[in-house]
Amino acid sequence: MSIPQYFELEGGDRMPRIGFGTWQASDEVLEQAVEAALAAGYRHFDSARAYENEAALGRALNRWIGNDPAKRKELFVVTKLPPGGNRPEHVQEYFDNSLKDLNLEYLDLYLIHTPFAFDHVPGDLHPKNPDGSMRMDHSTNLLELWKAVLKLKESGRVRHVGVSNLNEEQLARVCSVAKPACLQVELHVLCQQPSLVAAANKLGVPVVAYSPLGSKALADAKAAQTGQSYPDLLQLAEVQRIAQAHDRTPAQVLLRYNLQRGLASIPKSTNPARIKQNISVWDFNLSETEVSELAALDRGEKGRVCDFTFFVGADKHPEFPFKK
Ligand SMILES: NC(=O)c1ccc[n+]([C@@H]2O[C@H](COP(=O)([O-])OP(=O)(O)OC[C@H]3O[C@@H](n4cnc5c(N)ncnc54)[C@H](OP(=O)(O)O)[C@@H]3O)[C@@H](O)[C@H]2O)c1
To answer: Of ligand 1's atoms, which has the minimum distance to the CA of residue 252?
Structure first.
């Protein structure tokens, strides 16, 4: 089974279907990881204003680009508008700050990170009330926000714009204005969202899987918070058995499964061997039986790790995307 290595985007641009995640990495560790990722062949880098490490990513990318504009063209750099910027009048300011920190002349893709919004508090991307809950802004107008993000393209400083963490109804709504260049959502064997993926496919919106390996640190934090255990995807018996059968690692099986579902994935690792492993997923095939076994692991909404419960009060926002 031969799988395209890219999503073809408007204007002849191509988004590599294995990208590099950058969430939860300190500056120094991230710079080294990005260097290892570039050496391993990654060209798609996923960042976000909210990760507070765009400058470190930018330093590593700029060292690699040097003075060669052709090398910049090889890259596909993504960052995201944080929830605190989710108002038409704030989009430009947050976008400019991201580009400045990344120290790049243009972005390949800019995403609305979440459909819910925080208050705009300069210098504080995660503003909280005294009781620890988030300072939410319930006045969000998702379509007006989307129009403001689309407008960014007019400057030529971003080639594509898209969305993240939208549900099916929200995706259809933004598509009524203009089709996003991609939908980035949590997707792995325990959280497969078949209906959302089918809806995006029908609308012609490429889907990018975040937390494709189950985001272990976040899953552990969620388990500690809720008292409910959450399995390590890499330890699942089915995943281990299929990995052994192909002489591959469990992570490679999970990433290959996403590719065979027609998705892109953006695994994050700071370990050079694992960084290499995660992009070496093009030369083996899961059989139909193996695909069915992995499909059967879906736990629906219970399988979601990144449910934003760490943003206390986000679930009360009128645009909160997930079912409770
Ligand atoms: N749009 C959004 O709201 C959103 C939300 C979450 C994530 N994201 C994006 O998606 C990216 C990936 O998601 P994620 O970081 O949550 O989690 P993930 O990629 O599913 O998992 C990362 C974890 O897996 C480990 N790991 C990586 N490769 C491995 C391998 N081959 N074998 C064993 N363990 C491996 C990493 O540890 P080591 O570093 O030690 O290898 C790390 O602990 C993020 O970094 C971010 O860019 C976006």
So the answer is: 31
Range of the domain at 26: 11-314
Query: Which pLDDT tens digit goes with each residue over 256-265?
Result: 999 999 999 9
pTM for the complete prediction? 0.98
Centre of ligand 1 to C-alpha 121, Å, is 28
Number of domains in the chain: 1
pLDDT score for 229: 85
**Closest ligand 1 atom, CA of 164?**
1
Is residue 212 in contact with ligand 1, taking CB distance under 6 Å?
A: yes
User: Does a structural domain hold residue 273?
Assistant: yes
Distance CA 143, CA 265 (A): 27
| DSSP letters spanning 49-65 | GGGT-HHHHHHHHHHHH
CA distance 317 to 49: 21
Instruction: State the distance from the centre of ligand 1 to the C-alpha of 265, rounded, in angstroms.
Output: 10
Give the pLDDT band of residue 218 (cuts 50, 70, 90): very high
The domain that holds 183 is classified in CATH as: 3.20.20.100
